[in-house]
């Protein structure tokens, strides 16, 4: 077979350093478009990007030549640079060091897109740390509670 066929749907989540709520609404869409361009330039498929003041969710499928850790590193470095250069979010200093990534069956895509599209509404009932704990538990991922303090 001369072609690689793969489709893994990822939900990538990362937060601002110390979960500082600085990703204000007026420039959030500009950031989402910038992140989409980075992924598209790496031949990844972007389904939805969303988030609130202290974290982002990216729903995408990665091109077979792209490693997850590498793409997250590139997303964080490039977006951090443009945020600071263009002064998009005055309180932004950096992204947190880590990230979370979850895989889903393609059948879950519609629900994932909707979930990320309504992040503001969703977070009226659940804090960001509560959401991440729930996602980690749902995917059977052990975590250290000290990272949530």
UniProtKB/TrEMBL annotation:
Q: Which residues form the Transposase IS200-like domain?
A: 5-119
UniProt record, GO biological process: DNA transposition
InterPro entries xrefs: Transposase_17, Transposase_17_sf
Q: Annotated Gene Ontology MF terms?
A: DNA binding; transposase activity
Question: Which domain of life, per UniProt?
Answer: Bacteria
Q: Which Pfam families match?
A: Y1_Tnp (PF01797)
Task: Kindly give the PANTHER family that the UniProt entry links to this protein.
Answer: TRANSPOSASE FOR INSERTION SEQUENCE ELEMENT IS200
Which protein are we looking at? REP element-mobilizing transposase RayT
